[in-house]
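Could you join me in thinking about how sequence relates to backbone shape in a protein? We need material for that, and I hope you will provide a protein of your own picking. Label the sequence line and the structure token line clearly, so we can match residues to local backbone shapes. Would you write everything just below, so we can both look at the same thing?
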Amino acid sequence: MYLQRLSILNYRNIAECELQFSPKINCFLGRNGMGKTNLLDVVYYLSFCKSHLNPIDAQVIKHDADFFMIQGAFERQGIAEVVSCAVKRRAKKRFRRNQKEYERLSDHIGLLPVVLVSPADLDLVNEGSDARRRFLDVAISQYDKPYLSALVRYNEALQNRNALLKRDEQPDAEMLDIYDEQMAAEAQYICAKRAEFITEFVPLFQEFYSAIAGAGERVGLEYTSHAQRGDLRQLLREVRDRDLALGYTTRGAHKDDLIFTLDEFPMKRTGSQGQVKTYIVALKLAQFVFLQRTCRVTPILLLDDIFDKLDADRVTRIMQLVSGDGFGQIFITDTNREHLDEILSQIDGESRLFEVSEGKVVNVIE
């Protein structure tokens, strides 16, 4: 699968843009704040029906405009797919596939798989469990639609339970039982799929880490969940009084986590900047291959300023990996022309280099 053409109108700092891409390597060159990452975000949006940079659609619209429109022409398994989205302030989002509007945006997820590696991924290691669960959910939802549906239903039941806990000093016990039952039913599927994913995923991830870092560093990845302690209904009953005092739900699939280790110690405490970056890149490349196998479509790989904090040897190994036959179309951003030229010189095959300035693609350098 690859993106052939992209049209953008009023998306963040990009007023208007029409681009055609190589099916292999595409590089965006420019200083920070010029719009390189916004171009990647448009590709991400066409896959996930939302921005990676801002979950609020109205805030993605260019500040002096009333709407944005984006459209991508893809080739997927030999078939043309045109996907577009229009968002107007105070109006419903309109997301279309081949001119037909989706009734449910969740129906689109997985059609155009995308893997993004960005500076924000440092949160996977440095921040709380929310980011790590989001990694799980994004990875699994692209190939398992029942998982996404279960996640939506679980979160609805969780929100209802939390609202009841906050609103009433003595909430209706029967209503809490209903929400507990709903959460437990969905959590059983969610946690089982997360555990299944990690079991299959870890060997791939460790293989990529070794390929980038070389021998001598052992990394681990472990899934932890309340589901490993028994049925969620019983666990929720045990903490009901505490949840009422706190005003929110303290157990469930929304508290699951991933434990990242380097040589059996927490990565957050022991990993250098280069090791943390390598860990993240290996996670995302393993996600790419996993999606390729499960979706039977080669995802698009978005690499946003990923070479910062990596030594030259690791950069070379990453580029050798992603330029191989197993990977397809790749988008790369960087601020350094010499850096990009050096990277491209190591790659056989077609590539295009775009220069980005003040939200405009001002030149295409052959």
In short: The mean pLDDT is 93. Residues 117 and 284 are 7 Å apart (CA to CA). The chain is about 40% helix and 25% strand.
